[in-house]
Design brief:
about 210 residues; alpha/beta; Rossmann fold; 5-stranded parallel sheet; 9 helices; binds 2'-deoxycytidine-5'-monophosphate
Amino acid sequence: MIIAIDGPSSSGKGTISRLLGQKLGFSVLDTGLLYRLFAYRTLEQKIDPNNEPDVSSFLNDFQLNLSDLTIPALKENTIAQAASIVSQYPDVREKFLEFQRNFAKNPSFPHKGTILDGRDIGTVIVPTADLKIFITADVTVRAQRRWKELQERGIMCMFDDILSDLKARDERDMQRSQAPLKAAPDAHIIDTSTLSPQDVVDKVMSFVKKIHP
Ligand code: DC
């Protein structure tokens, strides 16, 4: 079974995917990390993420090493913004396409299925997914969650900066021509603004049970 979970930044899709993965015994891939890692390496090479030709030519040197997906700096805001820029380029999206499809179709033993979270999982990566969820939440609620998370990690930041960063990322992720953020026509849309993670997991589990009673 393949579950696609798409949605905007800080909508809670990462938390939901992790909780569902534990509950169902499924492999989970946070696909945003692929773009974040590539953006991180781009910045490390002093390449301007806005310079598409330079970013594209760096793709030839870039090797995806899965253990790098745990690099703590990938969680930083500067990397998130750079990831949102480089992920607009067709060559960059193409680079990670096969890897994501293979992950979706081949759960690692003893897992019985896969969960991928991102922006285009249900629309482009696995349009044949058994279950598609589109998780959303009011942008102010998302900014509050993000701000709280950063405070808890001891990272000082202004709420207004978080809010404007989120709005900029939403705009870029939704307006790009390649695989923009949007719900697949057959996705279940869940607005998590007033829901707890457990409420959302329960909702998704009710859809799972309809497929596999
Ligand atoms: O989910 P995230 O915040 O870690 O994603 C970081 C950026 O990567 C996001 O702004 C857009 C891009 N992204 C994408 O284009 N497609 C995906 N499937 C996942 C992320």
